[in-house]
């Protein structure tokens, strides 16, 4: 992904850096409207996720995470921008006339051919089970869009630049190293797409101004120590005061900054061999 640096002709473009423009011209039968976000509020109107609200209207693109069009080859026609995710998406024209969106694999270009199934070659963009009858995925293969439950569609490694590695196979399970560093067991029958998700340099972008952040639906972040006591446990005091506690807390009084929030005795604990970093 090419990074375009702005000239410092105005204060708002100073230090700005964006990726090369990828046009968005979605097909009408693959998009639909969506309800405006709840701005971080629950059904009672209470803020449960801060710094959210506003933002530009978006149309949702229907992404094919299941890749269940078996043994029908498709051709990449366009590479488009998706406002609902950091990764770019590809429009695929299949041989039977169907058209679908998928996540853009890194290195894929317009005109490339992809296919999904159990007897497909291990090449970039192809979707196949972690263990098939004839095409055995070798250890060390880079994969993304990985299923957790067979037939439900890919749920792991879907963000821009995300990639997981197949590190072992034993019995009915395969061992994967996920982008978070977690080592997890997945059924060998689950589908995964070969390669890495595209738009790898998304973290190199610099919006350059606050307005660009607001277009994304992200509001300013305010420190709790400068609030009033009624708004945050860190608030209050005369002048510039410390938080007044041994350890920092969330606005609701729970321990913050490093406290593990995962449920104990969760059903998936038996599948996780090493927790994420």
From TrEMBL:
Keywords: Chloroplast, Plastid, Ribonucleoprotein, Ribosomal protein
Family as reported in the entry's similarity comment: Belongs to the universal ribosomal protein uL2 family.
Name this protein carries in UniProt: Large ribosomal subunit protein uL2c
Database matches in Gene3D superfamilies: 2.30.30.30, Nucleic acid-binding proteins, Ribosomal protein L2, domain 3
UniProt-recorded Gene Ontology molecular function terms: rRNA binding; structural constituent of ribosome; transferase activity
Domain Large ribosomal subunit protein uL2 C-terminal: 122-255
Species for this entry: Lilium pumilum
Secretion signal span: none
Sequence segments annotated as region (Disordered): 1-22, 228-277
GO BP terms in the entry: mitochondrial translation
Domain named Large ribosomal subunit protein uL2 RNA-binding: residues: 40-116
UniProt superkingdom: Eukaryota
Gene Ontology CC terms, in alphabetical order: chloroplast; mitochondrial large ribosomal subunit
Main location: plastid
Xref: Pfam families: Ribosomal_L2_C (PF03947), Ribosomal_L2_N (PF00181)
Subunit structure: Part of the 50S ribosomal subunit.
Gene that specifies this protein: rpl2
Compartments, record wording: Plastid, Chloroplast
